């Protein structure tokens, strides 16, 4: 089973007992299953899909982001759909 942590500026969500996760990566869709190799994944605009044991689906729309999987824990940093992040630099 997987644990998925979705972190955004608006809120943080944690989901446990996840069977599989589908991510919208810049290279196409990536399906994460238990035992997936340690990886870093760049995400594009789309929807993160979480499936539990009964194949019930939860959807989380994003604008972009990045994911890191290690030891069956997927941590995703996202820019939620419709929200632009502004970066400020010191002068």
Automatic annotation (TrEMBL):
Name recorded for this polypeptide: ATP synthase F1 complex delta/epsilon subunit N-terminal domain-containing protein
Family matches, as SUPFAM superfamilies: Epsilon subunit of F1F0-ATP synthase N-terminal domain
Coiled coil: none
Top-rank taxon: Bacteria
Gene3D superfamilies: F0F1 ATP synthase delta/epsilon subunit, N-terminal (2.60.15.10)
Key words of the record: ATP synthesis, CF(1)
GO cellular component, one term: proton-transporting ATP synthase complex
Any Pfam family matching the protein: ATP-synt_DE_N
Ranges of residues in domain ATP synthase F1 complex delta/epsilon subunit N-terminal: 4-80
GO biological process: proton motive force-driven ATP synthesis
């Amino acid at each position: 089973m997987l644990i998925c942590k979705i972190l955004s500026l608006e809120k943080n969500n944690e989901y446990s007992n996840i069977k599989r996760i589908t991510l919208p990566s810049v290279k196409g869709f990536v399906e994460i299953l238990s035992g997936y190799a340690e990886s870093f994944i760049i995400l594009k605009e789309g929807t993160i899909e979480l499936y539990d044991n009964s194949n019930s689906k939860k959807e989380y729309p994003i604008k972009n982001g990045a994911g890191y999987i290690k030891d069956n824990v997927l941590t995703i940093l996202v820019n939620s759909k419709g929200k632009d992040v502004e970066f400020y630099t010191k002068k």
